[in-house]
Design brief:
Strand content: under 5%
Number of domains: 1
Number of helices: 3
Mean pLDDT: 78
Helix content: 55-70%
Order of helices and strands: HHH
Number of strands: 0
Structural class: mainly alpha
């Protein structure tokens, strides 16, 4: 009678290892993908994506001009800011 021997790793059909890789690992993977996307969106709200430039680095006089142009401050307030910034 001929005997066949298998010298590779044990073959397992089913069991806890199969459930782990078939169900839990994909759920963890997609949760990490979603977390990464949410983190990038939140990061994008706080910082400008253009050349790594943030709003805090802008010239204060330019900010005052922009506020005046938008109507957020009056002409008197703008002139006072200009005077204060020159000092």
């Amino acid at each position: 009678m001929l005997r066949h021997y298998y010298y590779g790793p044990p073959v397992v059909s089913g069991g806890p290892g199969t459930i782990l890789f078939a169900l839990i690992v994909p759920v963890i993977f997609w949760a990490l993908v979603i977390w990464l996307i949410v983190s990038l969106v939140r990061h994008g709200r706080h910082y400008s994506w253009h050349y790594g430039h943030t709003h805090e680095a802008e010239n204060p006089l330019e900010l005052a001009k922009a506020r005046y142009a938008k109507g957020e401050i009056t002409k008197t307030e703008f002139e006072q800011l200009k005077k204060d910034l020159k000092d």
